[in-house]
UniProtKB/TrEMBL annotation:
It is found in: Nucleus. Specifically interacts with the ligand binding domain of the thyroid receptor (TR). This interaction does not require the presence of thyroid hormone for its interaction. Interacts with proteasome subunit PSMA8; to participate in meiosis progression during spermatogenesis. This is Pachytene checkpoint protein 2 homolog. The keyword Nucleus applies. GO terms for cellular component: nucleus. Belongs to the AAA ATPase family. PCH2 subfamily. PANTHER family: PACHYTENE CHECKPOINT PROTEIN 2, PACHYTENE CHECKPOINT PROTEIN 2 HOMOLOG. Its main location: nucleus. Residues 1-31, 74-113 are annotated as: Disordered. PROSITE patterns: AAA. GO terms for molecular function: ATP binding; ATP hydrolysis activity; identical protein binding.
Amino acid sequence: DPGPPDSQARSARSRRYGRGPQGSRTTRWRRFFVPKASTRFSICHGQDGGSSPPSEEDTIFLHFPRTAAVASLLRHPPPSSSSSSSSLVRHGRRGPAPRPRPAPARRGGPSAGRQLPVALNSCSFSIHIYQLNEEGPSSEHLEEETENIIAASHWVLPAVEFHGLWESLIYDVEVKSHLLHYVTTTLLFSDKNVDSNLIAWNRVVLLHGPPGTGKTSLCKALAQKLTIRLSERYRYGQLIEINSHSLFSKWFSESGKLVTKMFQKIQELIDDKNALVFVLIDEVESLTAARNACRAGTEPSDAIRVVNAVLTQIDQIKRHSNVVILTTSNITEKIDMAFVDRADIKQYIGPPSPEAIYKIYLSCLDELMKCQIIYPREQLLTLRELDMLGYIENNVSKMSILLSEISRKSEGLSGRVLRKLPFLAHALYIQTPTVTVEVFLQALSLVVEKQFEERRRLAACVCDSGYWFGS
C-alpha cells in the first residue's frame, strides 16, 4: 500500500528492471503500510489488468517483524514468456490496495498496538526459494531375531505434506517465535564456540499438554520452517519420527539394544553436515518412563535399560550442531526427571482460548469461501476490528459477532476437534453444494452443541460402567 507521498518516498517508490516499456519485466518496489507482524502477498504472472486470481504456485510471503523485514518467496516459478509482467497484489487484489487507517494506540505506550509503516527500500530481504519433496515418508527398519521392526518414519524436507502447516497452527502464546529464536541461538552459540561446560544447552525441546492441541504438528511444521530458513547453511532437512512403542522388544533386555540401534542410524544422518536433522519422539513418556516406578516394582526392569539408553544417546548426539531433538508428551508426570532436566524448552500447549478459536474458525471459513462451498463470499471482521466497532451489530458486523459467540461456546474443545467441526456441520446439517455464511454458522453452532452433548453422554457411560464393575 502506498505510503505518504513525500519526496523521499517518490524517489524510491519505483525501480524498474527490464528491456524497455514494451514487453519488459517490471519489478515495482513500493512503500508498504504493514498492519501486523506477518502479511501475505501474491505475485501474479500475466498481462497487467488481467482477471485471473493468483494461484497457489505464485505466492510470496513477506514477514515483517517490528524491527526488520524478511521476505520469503514460496514456490515462485519463472514466467513462461518474456511478455509476462509481475504485479504485486495483496490477498488476491490487483494493484496497490488503499492504505488502511491506523488503529488507535492501546495501553502500554503511545505506539502500543499501532500499525507501523515499513519502508521496503530501507530493509534487508532474505528470499528463500525451494522445491517441495513429493516422495512421502520412508520407513526405517530394525532387525530383531526373526522380526523386521518399523522403528521410525523418515522425511526429506521440505516435504509437500507439511506445506502450509506452520501457518495453520494458531496458539495463544508466542510459542512459534520462541522456538525459532531457540534454534537461532543454538546455532549462534555453536558457531562462536561457546564452551558447553560453562553454558549448557542440549538441543532438546519438550512440548507437553492435553491431546489434540497440535504438539506433534508444531514439531513437524518447525522442522519444515527451519529447513527453509536455514537453506543457505544446510542443503536439505531430515525428519526422523521414532515409533516409540516398536522399540520395546518381547525379548528380555533387548529393548535397550533396539534404542541404541535406532540412534546409531540417526548418527549416520547427522554425520552429513549438509543436512539439518530433526529427531521427533512422539509420546516420549513411552521411552522415558520414570525409573522410580521401575524400582518400586510397578514397571518391568527392562524399562530402566530403555531410559538409560535414551539418556545416553541424547548426551552423545547433542555435541553435533546440525541436530534438534523434538519431543511431545500427554502425561508429563510419568516422564523421568533426568530427561525433563535435559530439555532446554519445556513448553505447555493447552486448549485454544476463544480468541484463538475465532482465528481458527476464520481460517476455515476463508477456505470454504475460496472453494465456493460458502457462496457468496462475505467479509468477516477480525477480533480487533470488532473491538474498534465496540461489538455493535450492523450489516457489516452481524456474521462476525455470531462467529465470536460460537467461538466462546466452543471453549474447551481441542484444536484437532475444532478443525473437524466445519466438515461435520456440512455433513450433518447442510448437505448442499453451496450455502450462505449465515446458514453455515447456524449449522456450526448446532454441531458445537452436539460435541458437548456427546461428551456428556460418553462421560455418563463411563461412570455407569465404573459403578457396574465396582458393584
